[in-house]
Each structure stands twice: as C-alpha cells, then as structure tokens.
Amino acid sequence: MGATRRIQRSVIVMSSFLSGRGLIIDRITGKIGHFATHAAIIHIDIDSASISRNIEVDIPIVADAKTALLALLEKAQKLDTQEWLGQIRQWQEMFF
User: Fold this and answer.
1) Which residues, at least 6 apart from 16, have a Cβ–Cβ distance to it below 8 Å?
2) pLDDT tens digits, residue range 3-48?
3) How many CA atoms lie within 13 A of 2 on its CB side?
4) What DSSP letter does each residue of 29-77 carry, written as one string?
5) Higher-confidence residue: 25 or 78?
6) Which residues have CB under 8 Å from 25's CB, separation 6+?
7) Contacts of 46 (CB under 8 A, 6+ apart)
C-alpha cells in the first residue's frame, strides 16, 4: 500500500463524519467491517436501492447529489478543524 493510500485510510478510520455519493463499494472501503467505525455516515444516492447496499449508513438521503449537498451546506456550521488538519499533516510528514 502506497503512502497516499495509508494516509487516506487513516483519515477515514479516524473520521467522526463521512459523506458518500453514489455506490459505496469495497474497492473504496477496503474491509467493510473496518470502514469508518467511528464515523457517522451519510450516503447520498439518486437510486434508493444503492443506499446501504454494501455498508450500513446512519443517514440515507435519496436525492440528486448536487441538490442534497447544497441543502446540507445551507445547514452546515463552521468547525475548528486545525487540530484535525494538523494530524493529517503529521501523517503526511511521516510517509513523505
């Protein structure tokens, strides 16, 4: 596994929130039982049959992705992400 992939997996595993658009498949998640175990997962898909097909999600949204994301963005609140971004930078320094 390359350094970039290690960092991506670390970010996913340690995330508290993830959103996915379209079908979430094992090529993206790796071992599904280990995918984002600490995260609340929102899955947006226009096809209701695709929601939670491969991974159980916390918030299913059946809609056009652009429409759903714009609606979510209206409700979003700015968070202090400096500590989280600092952790990601540390991982980048370790692997590059």
Assistant:
1) 38, 39, 40
2) 677 777 777 766 766 666 665 545 556 666 667 777 788 888 888 9
3) 2
4) HSSGGGTTTTSEEEEEES-GGGTTSSS--SEEEES-HHHHHHHHHHH--
5) 78
6) 54
7) 62, 63, 64, 65
